[in-house]
# Entry
Amino acid sequence: MGLFDNLFKSTDKSENTLKINWLALTDSEQLEEIIKISIAKPVLIFKHSTRCGTSRMALKNFESDYDIPATEIDMYFLDLLNYRALSNDISEKFKVAHQSPQVLVIKNGKTVYNDSHYSISFEAIKEVVAQ
# Structure
């Protein structure tokens, strides 16, 4: 059966076996924790608007491409509708303009990657995480 499994197995990215262990970003005090964690390993923040179709599609694309082991990066998820003020804190703390959807990668306390909407590049994120 192994041969047939390999021949007919779908290569659809939706079968990605790595699940993202999102940490809810709900409090500005977590930003100091993120800075500390980022000294040892990268931290990603995904800012998402739950009512926006573009944001939903960007999140879906991101999750389908995701293949970084949890041991290599911490993943934070910000629900913009419930925590809009926290998004402003992120913008100020990490020196990036607010966007939605938006991804930031923090290393050594600084933003090393940020992009938004359909410009979010999982390949670029993998590159900065590997550096």
Summary: The first helix runs from residue 2 to 8. The longest strand covers residues 110-116. DSSP finds five helices and five strands in the chain.
